[in-house]
UniProtKB/TrEMBL annotation:
Protein family per UniProt: Belongs to the Orn/Lys/Arg decarboxylase class-II family.
Active site as annotated: C331
Protein's recorded name: ornithine decarboxylase
Gene Ontology CC annotation, any one: cytoplasm
Length: 384
């Protein structure tokens, strides 16, 4: 965006005043800070932000301002980013597979919390990671998995050890003088708290098998954002279920809790403004953004249907909804949104389609494939 005005009222004002040719990701810091407070006040433990979901500096800064004191980082670059933007915050290096060089960089950066899901990778940590950093203990958390329940897609297919194996690692971690903790990640966009319940119960069994009391239990990310009309994320009941299940399973031995939301924190603080390039023969809609850009996730986890359509003057289209096939701008046939989306019948070339809740896994996965992907950024007071 070339306009010098830095904070807009809302996405409609951006459309009215600038008629952007390229897609624009619109960020509402107040919405992000409010969501951060919902987590900080509601979650019964430490809230850390999964940086990978949206590593924009403005996001990190607003989270710090709101009071977030920990970050889940997965690479030396993310470790450095948080070291620079939030030097006092905790950094949990929770990518369970790391090269020797990555381990050395993280040790140099004084990382004090690690996760692991195999003996081969644990051996690497035992060989290179000290048990204390600046007089404080270093935590290693075996990551365990269960057959998936409730998530939109299955993270367990890549990471996580079975419960017995996790127990073996937990015991070794404790025997070698590290702080023994446990971690899991139930998958992403889990709208049902059941996803956490079974994991928490199994965490207790792992501690019993290992004969080790876990200092902390990290219940992962997976908290839902508002993707679908009428299905609002019910974070309060998820927080309550997590707290209740931990109390029930562990009683007086309850570990301290940590969560690492990505999407649940950042997604709803953004909207994506796209433009209609063509309505081909009056049917399929071609947008200037698609699955190689800000909508990368949709084929994997499903459409966002919180959509508004505006004419170029910034007035909402009011026509009755009609199902349309939506294509992105590239010449690749996979550049298509899943199924159909309902759009106003009177949608026309040059109109704008706004996707609400588009802040997660969008800015950061945008590519320049086929010469598209020049993404504008704008800040707004409000997304509505
Ligand atoms: C990606 C990831 C997260 C964040 O997941 P969301 O579904 O965005 O909340 C949290 N923890 C780990 C280990 C991850 O890999």
């Amino acid at each position: 965006m070339t306009n010098s005005k830095t904070v807009w009222q809302n996405p409609a004002e951006i459309i009215r005043e600038t008629q952007p040719e390229n897609p624009v990701l619109v960020f509402a810091p107040t919405v992000l800070q409010e969501r951060a407070r919902t987590f900080l006040e509601g979650f019964p433990g430490l809230v850390t932000y999964a940086v990978k979901s949206n590593p924009e500096e403005a996001v990190i800064q607003n989270l710090v301002t709101a009071g977030v004191q920990g970050f889940d980082v997965a690479s030396p670059a993310e470790i450095d980013l948080i070291g620079r933007l939030a030097p006092r915050a905790a950094r949990h290096y929770h990518n369970p597979v790391r090269s020797q060089s990555e381990i050395r960089q993280a040790v140099d950066a004084k990382i004090r919390a690690w996760s692991v899901d195999s003996m081969s990778e644990l051996e690497k940590l035992l060989a290179h990671v000290p048990t204390e950093v600046d007089g404080e203990g270093v935590e290693i958390s075996p990551r365990f998995k269960l057959p998936v329940l409730g998530a939109v897609y299955d993270f367990g297919s890549k990471f996580g050890a079975g419960p017995e194996y996790a127990a073996e690692m937990l015991k070794l971690v404790a025997d070698r003088g590290y702080i023994p903790s446990l971690t899991f990640h139930p998958g992403t966009q889990c709208t049902d708290p059941i996803a956490w319940e079974s994991y928490i119960k199994v965490a207790r069994e792992i501690c019993d098998m290992a004969g080790v009391r876990a200092r902390r239990l990290n219940v992962g990310g997976g908290f839902p954002s508002h993707r679908v009309v009428g299905v609002e994320p019910d974070l309060a009941s998820i927080f309550a279920e997590i707290g209740d299940t931990v109390a029930e399973a562990f009683g007086d031995d309850a570990p301290l809790l940590v969560c690492e939301p990505g999407r649940g924190l950042c997604a709803d603080a953004y909207a994506l403004i796209t433009r209609v390039k063509a309505v081909r023969d009056g049917a399929a809609v071609f947008l200037n953004d698609g699955v190689y850009g800000g909508l990368a996730e949709l084929p994997i986890i499903g459409n966002i249907d919180r959509i508004e359509v505006f004419d170029p003057q910034g007035n909402p289209r009011q026509g009755p909804p009609v199902g349309r096939v939506i294509f992105g701008p590239t010449c690749d046939s996979v550049d298509r949104l899943p199924g159909e989306l309902s759009l106003p019948e009177d949608i026309a070339e040059g109109d704008y389609v706004i996707f609400q809740g588009a802040g997660a896994y969008s800015v950061v996965t945008n590519t320049r494939f086929n010469g598209f992907g020049a993404l504008g950024h704008a800040t707004v007071m409000s997304l509505a």
